[in-house]
Design goal:
Blueprint (H helix, E strand, L loop, with lengths): L8 E2 L5 H26 L4 H29 L11 E2 L7 H4 L4 H25 L3 H30 L1 H32 L1 H11 L2 H26 L10 H18 L9 H26 L4 H24 L1
Parallel strand pairs: 1-2
């Protein structure tokens, strides 16, 4: 009867047997999700994978307790009631979407799952007329709330261990290789390589709009080129630098942003005002590059600043000289 309606039911309209059936299927789903988290993390983060292995086992224990309660009250035939059958019921990400999540996002997703499960059990307990069932649902609500605290405690314990410290360093390294390094290369290319054509056009034409169009074309073209180059030259399998599309996106976007930074001021009709603002933007861009190098690549700040500012100044001077000749 439940499945033949062809539409979702409201939670308040569910019978107690349907609520228990929904809880059973939800615990089964969550156990599988935690197991998939563990499998994804195991190669790089075995300590964190152990946390999700334990959480998966606990969800399975909850399912067994719910089944025992259901059989005591309603028999052995459990109706198929799932999340998608109930309007307003909390959802879960498909497993294939969770495969792309980082360690931090997986931890956040698990915390959200536990919070939603606790709220469900609290609401379900309020609708139950059976004393034992109400107690069980209340206990499970408390258990779900403790899961987050317990997982946090395990996480702190693991992170203080050698394995945990190694995982943290591995995660940082992966972030740098996948996002920071390609993005920094793109920002440097976009900020520095577009200086010459933009300022050469500016001083050759003294026309803000023409300069902006050249800057826009140079920035977008460089972004597309850098993005495709980064994604195509290394599939990340041997180097371990991460998914090509992620690196391509980081490099392409930051290249475009780097060029647009000193092209956008030329939307101002007053040529000299636009040029003055563009010069300030260039200064900010170069120092931002130096800061990123120091923050993530551990390059001494003064050395990074000297290299970037010197290189940018030479390119800028070349553009101005060529444009003014």
């Amino acid at each position: 009867m439940f499945l033949s309606l062809g539409s979702r039911r409201r939670f308040s309209d569910l019978s107690e047997s349907e609520i228990l059936a929904l809880a059973i299927s939800s615990e089964e789903d969550d156990a599988r999700i935690y197991a998939s988290f563990a499998e994804k993390l195991r190669p790089q983060y075995p300590a964190s994978a152990a946390i999700f292995d334990e959480m998966s086992k606990e969800e399975d224990t909850h399912r067994q307790r719910l089944i025992e309660n259901f059989e005591r009250r309603f028999g052995k035939v459990i109706p198929l009631v799932r999340r998608e059958h109930v309007a307003g019921y909390y959802s879960r990400r498909p497993v294939w979407l969770t495969q792309s999540l980082s360690l931090e996002r997986i931890q956040s997703e698990a915390a959200r799952m536990e919070e939603e499960a606790a709220a469900f059990y609290q609401r379900a307990a309020a609708q139950s007329s059976d004393t034992q069932t109400r107690k069980l649902l209340g206990d499970l609500a408390a258990a779900e709330r403790k899961h987050e605290t317990r997982a946090e405690g395990l996480r702190v314990q693991y992170e203080s261990s050698e394995a945990g410290k190694g995982e943290k360093e591995s995660a940082r390294r992966q972030f740098v290789l996948t996002w920071v390094q390609p993005g920094l290369a793109g920002l440097m290319d976009g900020s520095v390589s577009t200086l010459a054509p933009i300022f050469a056009t500016a001083f050759a034409t003294h026309n803000s709009w023409t300069t902006f169009l050249v800057g826009l074309a140079a920035s977008v073209g460089a972004g597309i080129s850098m993005g495709f180059t980064e994604a195509a030259h290394d599939d990340g399998v041997i180097s371990g630098r991460g998914a090509p599309w992620k690196r391509g996106v980081a490099s392409g976007i930051m290249t475009t942003v780097g060029g647009l930074g000193h092209a956008l001021p030329y939307l101002i009709p007053n040529f000299w005002l636009a040029t003055a603002i563009a010069g300030v933007v260039v200064f900010i861009e170069l120092w931002a590059i130096a800061w990123i190098q120091n923050r993530y690549m551990e390059t001494p700040f003064m050395r990074a600043a000297f290299q970037v500012v010197l290189g940018g100044s030479l390119v800028l001077a070349a553009g101005v000289l060529i444009g003014g000749s």
